[in-house]
Amino acid sequence: MIECSICLNIMNHPITLCANCDELFCEICISQHLKIKNDCPKCKVAPFIKQNLGRSLKNILNTFQLNCPIECGLKFGFIEIENHKNSCEKLKENYQCSLCDKKLEYQQNLENAHQNECEKLKKSCNHCKEVISVFVYDDHLKTCDQWRDYCENCNLMVCRKYQDAHSSLFCTQIQKLSLLIKKLEDL
C-alpha cells in the first residue's frame, strides 16, 4: 500500500516528494507539518524542499491496485482514490483523526473543520495563555495584547496593550527627566 509517512493513510492527491530523501507525503499533510516545523518528517533535513512528482513516477503510482483502507472489499487504481474516499460508506463511518483518534466523518478531516478543534493541534500562547490552533498561532502573536516588546525610546519591556500609553506618557517623562539630568550635569 502507498502510505503517507505523516497520516499513515493511503496517499491523498496531490503528492509531494522530499527532495532530500525521496519520501512521499500527502500534500495536505506536509503543508500542515511545515506550518509547525520546517523540516522533513522522515529525514529531519531542514529546510524542507518540496519536489513535485515527475510524470513517470505518477504513471507508476497509477498502476497500483489499492484495497480500501477500511476493507469494504473494493479495489481501485491509485488515481481513483479520491472518488472512493467520497463514496465508501464504511470509510465515512470509520474515519478518525490520526492525531487525537476522534471519530470523524471523512469529509470533516484535518484539512478543514477538525484542524481548529483537534486538541493535538492546539497550543497555549506564552503571553496571554489563550489556547489556539497551531495553524493560527503566528497570526495570534501579531495581535496578542499581552505580547511584550522593547520600547524603542527607553528599552523597557512593555505589553502591546500598553505601548501607546507608555510611549505618550512614561517615555515622554523619562525623556524630560533625561534632559533635566543632562542640564544639571552641564552646570
Question: What does this protein structure show overall?
Answer:
This protein is of the alpha+beta class and 187 residues long. It has 2 domains: 15-117, Herpes Virus-1, CATH 3.30.40; 148-186, no CATH class. The protein is 36% helix and 15% strand. It has 7 helices and 9 strands. The strands form 4 sheets. Strands 2-1-3 form a 3-stranded antiparallel sheet. The protein has a two-stranded antiparallel sheet with strand order 4-5. Strands 6-7 form a two-stranded antiparallel ribbon. A hairpin with a 5-residue loop joins strand 1 (15-18) and strand 2. It is elongated. The N and C termini lie far apart (85 Å).
Across the major sheet, the strand order is: 2-1-3
Query: Helical region count?
Result: 7
The proportion of strand residues reads 5-15%
Specify the CATH architecture of the largest domain: 2-Layer Sandwich
Helix content: 25-40%
The end-to-end span amounts to: 85 Å
Mean pLDDT across residues: 79
- Uncertain regions: pLDDT < 50 for 5+ in a row? none
Here the CATH topology of the largest domain equals: Herpes Virus-1
Tally of discrete structural domains: 2
Broad structural category: alpha+beta
Number of strands: 9
General form:
elongated
What is the level 1 CATH name of the largest domain? Alpha Beta
One letter per element, helices H and strands E, the order comes to EEHEHEEHHHEEHEEH
Largest sheet geometry: 3 strands, antiparallel
